[in-house]
Amino acid sequence: MTDTILTSLDVSKRPRTADEAAVWYAAALGWPVTPGTGLDRDATHSRTPGEALDCSGAWLAPGPWQWAASAVPDLVRTVWRLSPGSPVLAVLGRPVPGARRLGIVDVPSLVGVAALERLGKNPAAVGPITDGQGRIRFLVDLGADGEPEYGLSKWREAGVDLRIWGRGRCCPLPTPGAVGPSWVVWAVPPDPQRRTLPHARQVTAVLDRAVRDAYPSLWDAAVHQEQALS
């Protein structure tokens, strides 16, 4: 397995193994990564989306490198030699090329598909997106604004689970050969030549419209509630 790790990286070639994928994400995108663990699908049924993405939870593979996430290809290569075949996790809340702080906006697939269609019409708001477990995760720049909500709390109160994850969280990345809860795929594959991520504010603004498309009755209820409070 360790022989499959890239020794000289060509970022134009997509990785074929988990070990190659870890090095590719670090070298091509500059994202800090750490190894995950493959759990069976039943293990996630009792978890909330937040618990599933928590870096202190069961996503992380056992070993001393749990808190040693890195974007240095040589270090990543060494870690995956110690944990060959492990799913790749991106550690959120850190500076990366194209973003002041890497984060995700995590939404139900129905809302995410509607938002994806709208984001595709706005070149300034295009970025890599992961999809799995009935959720779509928009990779975004959290900027320097702490951990803002950008108005998503009103939708959670209405029953639509839209969340922003940042510091202290991990995001499973598409990994060749990964199964179980680590199985995610790219809805829009990342482009090493276009690493700038959309700001979280851009994505959440589009999500307002996407919720209206996917859940029109909830949109109307939220608008009426805001009008009543104003």
Secondary-structure element series = HEHHEEHEEHEEEHH
The total number of structural domains is 1
Strand content: 15-25%
Helix content: 25-40%
Number of helices: 7
Give the biggest beta sheet: 5 strands, antiparallel
Quick one: how many beta strands?
Answer: 8
The best one-word shape is: elongated
User: What radius of gyration results from the CA coordinates?
Assistant: 18 Å
Distance between the termini: 61 Å
Strand order of the largest sheet: 6-3-5-4-8
User: Structural class from helices and strands?
Assistant: alpha+beta
* Mean pLDDT figure: 77
Low-confidence stretches: 1-8, 39-52
Can I get a quick summary?
The protein has 230 residues and is α+β, with helices and mostly antiparallel strands. The protein has seven helices and eight strands; from the N terminus they run αβααββαββαβββαα. Helix 1 (18-29) packs antiparallel against helix 3, helix 4 crosses helix 6 (200-214) and helix 6 (200-214) packs across helix 7.
Protein topology:
Elements: H1 18-29, E1 33-35, H2 49-52, H3 73-82, E2 88-91, E3 102-108, H4 109-119, E4 129-132, E5 135-141, H5 153-157, E6 163-165, E7 170-173, E8 185-188, H6 200-214, H7 216-229
Antiparallel strand pairs: 1-2, 2-7, 3-5, 3-6, 4-5, 4-8
What can you see in these coordinates?
There is one protein chain. The protein is an alpha+beta fold. The chain has one domain. 31% of the residues lie in helices and 16% in strands. It has helices spanning 18-29, 49-52, 73-82, 109-119, 153-157, 200-214, 216-229, and strands at residues 33-35, 88-91, 102-108, 129-132, 135-141, 163-165, 170-173, 185-188. The strands form two sheets. Strands 6-3-5-4-8 form a five-stranded antiparallel β-sheet. A three-stranded antiparallel β-sheet has the order 1-2-7. Helix 1 packs antiparallel against helix 3, helix 4 (109-119) packs across helix 6 and helix 6 crosses helix 7 (216-229). It is elongated, with a radius of gyration of 18 Å. The termini are far apart. The model is unreliable at 1-8 and 39-52 (pLDDT under 50).
